[in-house]
Disease resistance N-terminal domain-containing protein
Amino acid sequence: MAEIVVTFVVEEMLKKLASLALEEIDRAWGLKGKLQKLSKSLASIRAVLRDAEEKQGREESVKIWLQKLRDVAYEAEDVLDEFGYEVLRQKVEGSTPSRKEGTELH
């Protein structure tokens, strides 16, 4: 049951990424390429999760690995939520954020 939740969380993250106005983000921060790369990575994670969920019942190491991946997925969702909030805040305030030197999304 918990594994279904993980898959759902990852899928929701992908939906959030898709719903962001990538053109506006690119204009404001120049991050479009990095967000697209993150989206592709999350799609790969989703595929691996589905495979691992099938094996989970047979192998204890897979259960442990899934728990760690689940934790990372929740953290990634939090980061995306915060980023989306910041984009909306900047839009509401009508200002374009300035890129701070040394600030990068990895």
Remarks:
- Residues 60 and 66 are 10 Å apart (CA to CA).
- The mean pLDDT is 71.
- Residues 60-93 form the longest helix (34 residues).
- The radius of gyration is 16 Å.
